[in-house]
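Complex 202.
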Amino acid sequence: MIDVSAGLSDSIHKQIDASYYPDGWRRYMARAIKEAFPDKIVMTSGNIRNPQSACEILENQDADLIGMGRQTIADPSWPHKVKTGKIDEIRQCISCNIGCAGHRIGLNRPIRCTVNPDVFYDDFYKKQKVNKKTNVVVIGGGTAGLEAACTASEVGCTTFLIEKEKTLGGLARQISQIPEKTRIAHFPKYLEKGAEKLHDLF
Ligand code: SF4
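Predicted structure with iron/sulfur cluster bound:
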């Protein structure tokens, strides 16, 4: 099998794909290798976040396998969610590099993820319910407020989220308007969708 990747320390934006590279941007390299070595299984990777991109690469026969790094830190359940059709529950990596590359590699500290509050135990917290009636009021519906409100609701609290603006998502929504930062938009969208499913939240 050949894993076709790219990037050295001097081209770090290609080694740890910059957020502005499209999903599967290395597919043309994998295709060239596949054509040169038709008997080998060829894998591609690079900012592949949504299942549609992955399918399109495979259907187009640019590669035989899809590799994902940061996406599986952001949501280790990606394969399971795709298999069971829970596409809108996928927590996409936003390519910020803060918790994984920055925290783990840069600072040599335990790995973190901006969009996944618990990299090690994922959804395990949902099993730990409050054992008495608890009201929670969260002020501010940015990503931190949404995450806090959803978590409180998921563990059994009666939760109220108060936001003065007409839209949720706070700064993340505004920053995602910058062309190089559009991937960030997925995070507030994902949180908002999750909140909508929690009936006692609004
Ligand atoms: S910290 Fe940022 S770049 Fe790293 S996996 Fe999480 S969302 Fe992706």
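DSSP finds nine helices and five strands in the chain.
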